[in-house]
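README, section 4: Worked example with a bound small molecule

Sections 1 through 3 covered apo chains. Here we extend the same pipeline to holo records, where the ligand is supplied as SMILES alongside the sequence. The molecule in this example is 2-acetamido-2-deoxy-beta-D-glucopyranose. Nothing else about the input changes; the structure line simply encodes the ligand pose together with the chain.
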Amino acid sequence: MAVQRRGNVKTADTSSIEKKIKRGIAQRQASSYRGYAAVLVALVGTCSLLIWLWSIWTSDITQTLVSRGEVLTEPRVFMIQCSEDYLKYKHFPGCTPTKCGRAVLDTVVSTDESRTLKRLAERGLALGGSDGGASILDLHSGALSMGKKFVNIYRYYSNEIRDIFTEDDFELYRAVRGRIQRVIAETFGLDFNKLYLTKPTFFSRMNSTSAKTTHDEYWHPHIDKVTYGSFDYTSLLYLTDYGVDFGGGRFIFMDPNSNRTVEPRS
Ligand SMILES: *[C@@H]1O[C@H](CO)[C@@H](O)[C@H](O)[C@H]1NC(C)=O
Ligand SMILES: *[C@@H]1O[C@H](CO)[C@@H](O)[C@H](O)[C@H]1NC(C)=O
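The generated complex, written as structure tokens:
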């Protein structure tokens, strides 16, 4: 821009005095434009440096919130702003989130309990299984993945069910479910008795077989109130270990500008 101005001045058909005056003005303008340009370049430079650093920070460096080596005996919590999604629903005091966040804890179940639950899930899932990479077993509704659809395990295997799951299995399941509920209530300042288990609640098993139906597409981000309108809190209990039982597949808390990963352990 500054260069163009000077060119205009040079080609102007005017008297010598006018030329001198104009040259003076033009030079002042040129230098102020140059100064302006330098500031702009410096600003653009700073911005692109920031953008560059930012892109490195956000894409190449994914923050590990909890690594597998860590054993958290107290919840590791980080709070976030509550989504406006909650405003579209009726407010239930003691249950509807007033503070929102994520919490990770390792000591809700013992190693033995975790193994027992895993064997329970394996026995159930062995009766069916999805053609794609994700199978589920929902002990509440009885839903079990089978090929490209679901069957009701309690109807489909009504005679065998007593041999597959024992009363002890169900008791452990109920106890663990209650403990998770308590941790959620304590972490988010809620009334334990005002929290209710909603559906779906299920065991899931995933591997790298490609998806055959949309039910196998486990990788979509989960958002309470969007994925399932009934969810106010979502809990996941891992029964396998990252780096031992599976690779890849870390758990990610996704935000617009950052991803925080958890390396799950059973
Ligand atoms: C976070 O992870 C998701 C899934 O891998 C990816 O699509 C997204 O670009 C990541 N976001 C950032 C900010 O790195
Ligand atoms: C995934 O699990 C299913 C059911 O157990 C099995 O048939 C399939 O071979 C597995 N795929 C991989 C890639 O391990």
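What to look for in the output: The radius of gyration is 30 Å. Residues 16-60 form the longest helix (45 residues).

Section 5 describes how to batch many such records.
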